[in-house]
Design a protein that fits this description.
Elements (H helix, E strand, L loop, with lengths): L10 H22 L2 H25 L15 H6 L5 H5 L3 H5 L6 H21 L11 H41 L5 H6 L2 H19 L6 H10 L3 H10 L1 H9 L16 H8 L14 H13 L1 E4 L7 H14 L4 E6 L4 H11 L4 E4 L4 H10 L1 E6 H4 L12 E4 L11 H10 L4 E5 L8 H11 L1 H7 L9 H7 L3 E2 L3 H4 L17 H12 L3 H5 L12 H15 L11 H11 L13 H13 L7
Parallel strand pairs: 1-6, 1-7, 2-4, 2-5, 3-4, 5-6
Helix pairs in contact: 1-7, 1-9, 2-7, 7-9, 7-10, 7-11, 7-12, 11-12, 13-14, 14-15, 15-16, 20-21
């Protein structure tokens, strides 16, 4: 009779519970082990896109290309046979070309070999850019696959954690719970067996009610691993660099960075061999950025001169992250006040490093950084007020806009040079091509690597020569957008010609007769009524077109009055103008507001 004290659970409830546990476990296992399949899908999509782009490029080449070397090939015969472009020619075998009336074997061999060369050259040099406006199926497949790789990593890791916690005990609980049997069988089971079954059912119920069964993580996985086009295309438009960076990680031959970045082969090989531990970095680096970080860490005291937009900031953050992984603790970023806030935002955005802003004479913030480490972000004006213990070491100093310290006699330069004595790692950053300013370059190099600076003295008059660049290679790394961002479209500059209105003609005549050059430059924006301004009318047209095309507009002018006129003309669609009188903090706020604004907004 004692065996009846343990009540038999409802069999249908247990059956449903087991079914739910099995299906949920299977979904977690599927997502946890999906990385290989997702990588394979991304690689297939990337290669399909590459082949499609090659095909398009070849189809746009007239078959006349086969006779560029004046080989005497009668191209008209190919046209007569319906072969009008290189792609069509590439699909023909030697025998098929021989069968074209008027073409013999000799001409056929020439055509085959020439087409092969053109195809190979196209494959080696083609620039792959993902189309947003009118994407092909291959564009869509690739963006979806990259979206899954980018956003699925953390979800897969969470699913793996769930599997490690639940999978093995879950299987045992399911086997035990299935032994519930019928009511008569339950009556004859031992007290211990009944207790085991009840414990298994209770454990399954607890799992179903907890993280394992609440469905939140699986719902997130469903959304990321099976995303809607609107999700991944918007994400790509908001963060295209991350997608191109992820594309490079696939290791495809056409997406690799095989250049030496302008460095001697021996130095480039040594830099490439530099190990990096980027556990504190959140972002995915482009190949050229990874090389830049290795260069910074390997060479220790360097000047990074990459073009604007190539990610000097993220390379600096990655270098600090790598050094922290190597046991370093205190880092300092010295920058102009105008970008102080941007640095304070970018560091936590791209890494797990903590930021301490030290602006002005903020001794409490400086003390906090000394005690807690990670990154102190400060300004050129602030460092002259720093009070640090005499032997206090700094792991790395990053100096943004390093050309600000080109004059050795200024307080800011002297203060910075004093700090540089405390560190083994120094990074100067400047997007200005300093190799064209030899004296400035030589001084900055002397702050970093005095021996290299001495070697420059004998060749500095060869500032545009290869010898000068080779001498700079131990300390100076500069890449341009054309060097590393092959996916970017060519810059299009289009002049807009406007016909002067009578009022503008009168204004221009007065400015010319009075020899007022500045007034001549401002013609059309200095008329009393903007309805008589041809430039204002054309700007309105361009802004309206941009809104229709879901784009935004940035307007530049040398003249504040012109900016005021433009703001008046555009009304509510225009953001607050940014001029030299706008504070650094407000400047960043305006840029953020512009980034979040609807299409048609004007900055």
């Amino acid at each position: 009779m004692a065996s009846e004290k343990l009540q038999r659970p409802d069999p249908s409830y247990v059956s449903n519970l087991i079914q739910f546990a099995q299906s949920t476990d299977a979904r977690f296992l599927s997502y946890a082990g999906s990385e290989s399949a997702h990588w394979q899908a991304a690689m297939q999509a990337a290669n399909a896109l590459f082949e499609h782009r090659v095909q398009l490029a070849l189809a746009e080449m007239d078959v006349e290309q086969v006779n560029k070397g004046k080989q005497g090939i009668r191209v008209s015969l190919l046209h007569d046979a319906g072969i009008h472009n290189i792609y069509q020619a590439s699909q023909l075998s030697f025998r098929q070309i021989c069968d074209i009336d008027g073409l013999g074997e000799q001409s056929a061999w020439k055509i085959v070999e020439t087409v092969k060369q053109i195809v190979q050259n196209t494959r080696d040099t083609i620039r792959i850019r993902i189309k947003v406006d009118a994407p092909h199926k291959t564009d869509d497949d690739l963006i979806r696959s990259l979206y899954v790789l980018i956003h699925g990593k953390s979800l897969r890791e969470q699913c793996q954690r769930i599997c490690q916690i639940h999978h093995a005990p879950l299987q045992q609980e399911i086997r035990t719970a299935r032994e519930i049997s019928g009511s008569i069988g339950w009556f004859f089971k031992s007290q211990a067996k009944k207790q085991q079954i009840l414990s298994a059912v209770n454990s399954l119920s607890a799992r179903a009610a907890g993280e394992f069964g609440n469905g939140v993580l699986l719902q997130q996985c469903d959304q990321v691993f099976f995303p809607l086009p609107s999700m991944y295309w918007k994400d790509f438009q908001d963060n295209a660099p991350a997608y191109y960076a992820q594309l490079e990680t696939l290791g495809l031959h056409w997406a690799k960075d095989n250049t030496k970045h302008g460095l001697p082969a021996q130095l480039a090989d040594a830099v490439n061999a530099q190990p990096l531990d980027l556990q504190y970095l959140k972002a995915t680096l482009r190949n050229y950025q990874t090389f830049g970080v290795k260069y910074i860490v390997h060479q220790k005291k360097t000047l990074l001169g990459d073009d604007m937009g190539l990610g000097k900031t993220i390379q600096a953050i990655a270098a600090m992250s790598a050094l922290k992984a190597a046991g370093k603790t205190h880092f300092m970023v010295v920058c102009p006040a105008s970008v102080l806030i941007n640095w304070c935002r970018e560091i936590p955005r791209h890494s797990t490093l903590e930021v301490t802003k030290v602006h002005g004479n903020d001794e409490d913030a400086l003390l906090h950084w000394r005690e807690n480490g990670d990154v102190c972000v400060t300004t050129f004006e602030s460092i002259s007020r720093f009070k640090l213990p005499e032997r206090f070491p700094i792991s790395m100093i990053v100096t943004d806009e390093a050309h600000y310290v080109k004059n050795p006699d200024t307080h800011r330069t002297k203060a910075l040079l004093g700090l540089l004595k405390r560190t083994d790692y120094t990074l100067f950053m400047s997007g200005t091509p300093l190799e064209n300013r030899v004296e400035e370059m030589c001084f900055l190099v002397s702050c970093l690597q005095p021996d290299t600076a001495k070697s420059l003295e004998s060749v500095k008059y060869l500032s545009t020569a290869e010898q000068f660049r080779q001498q700079l290679s131990p300390v100076y790394l500069r890449r341009t957008r054309d060097d590393v961002l092959q996916e970017l479209p060519d810059l299009i500059e289009k002049e807009q010609w406007c016909t002067l209105t009578p009022q503008e003609q009168a204004s221009y005549y007065d400015a010319t007769m009075s020899e007022n050059f500045m007034a001549m430059r401002q013609v059309s924006w200095n008329v009393s009524d903007l309805s008589h301004s041809s430039k204002a009318a054309r700007l309105l047209e361009l802004c309206n077109q941009a809104k229709e095309q879901n784009r935004k507009v940035i307007v530049f002018s040398f003249f504040r009055n012109t900016l005021r006129q433009v703001a008046q003309l555009l009304g509510e669609r225009c953001m607050e103008p940014i001029t030299g009188s706008v504070s650094p903090q407000r400047r960043q706020e305006i840029i953020d507001e512009f980034g979040k604004a609807d299409s048609g907004a004007v900055l």
